[in-house]
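Support reply, case 0932

Customer input (verbatim):
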Amino acid sequence: MAHPRLMRAHHHLLLVAALLLTAGLGSGCVFDNQLDEQRCLNDSACTTRFGADFRCVDEVCQKLGPATCDLEENPDQACQSRDGFFCNGLEVCNPDSPDADAFGCVAGPVPGLDDGVACTADYCDEDLPANQRIIHDPSGCECQGDAICRALNSSPCVTSSCHPTNFNCVTTPVEAGSSCDDGIACTVGTVCDESGACVAGADTLDDGVCDDDVFCNGEERCAPEEASADPASGCVAGTPPTADDGIECTIAVCNEADDRIEQDPRACECTSVAECEARAADCHAYRCNAATAFTCERTGETLQSGTFCDDGASCTAQDTCRDGGVCAGTPVHQICAFSATCETGTPFCTPDPDPEVNAQTEGCVCQE
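Our regenerated output:
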């Protein structure tokens, strides 16, 4: 049987060990793998179990009061890691600053965004890689590449490119006198001028390109500078040819087959001798005189005796030409008896030598 004093000493040692173990667990300290007494190995062992206010001091977890960034190995980095944002500026550790937060961090200056180009939209994007977060968006600028500049100025006499920093189109004229194609069909031998324009001189306009081989629509010209010119060909329509013969009743008509203007007399008194003879059925010869506005004129000759004619009297029959160019018919008095009325006397068929008079009286005359 063990000695009572030895048993009491062993019991005392067990009690001390239990108390020490209880104290170690209650203080939040962690032990190494060998549970070497009650010491902690690092700050994370304390902060993990007891909070951010605990640190491992002299290998024992102790509450030091509010933790600050200056206790970190890399104070500024600790502040930036807590915030986690780039676009609001890089925080710095300065616990003494009145602007410091509870951890002693002070907000850093916001990164500069303005690239000095008025047309770009400058902003910061947290979702992009660290070296790509500051954006200068040129979508509101004149160009983002050379292609749009070439489209805006397609002159063959300039080179167009997009400036890499201000995103404006830059045009540079090529050497004056360089040959160029202005895209206009009727110009030949065009060259670049000092301003970067492709121009044609007076001796480079080819009217032959514009000729449509039609006489009656006028002669076409190469005149690309005129407002009425066709944009593709540079041609201007000709003015249809006209000719005034001074005769009011004629109509000018273009003869495409013969390439000439002719005067149409269809609206005039006559166009042929036959029309004159039909209108004046007396015993005189007529002609249609174009020199006097296509009017019927007597030639001075008379028709052969016995030629049928019209004396204008309705009461005569078998009208024929007589010597001297007189038209006369055989009187039929009965016609006047039926058609004429006399206040005094009796109507007889007595034609007048003038057919126009007979046309009014029908050739009937009242006689006592």
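We compared this against your earlier run and they match. Two observations from our side: Confidence is low (pLDDT under 50) at residues 1-35. The longest strand covers residues 295-302. Please reopen the case if you see a mismatch on your end.
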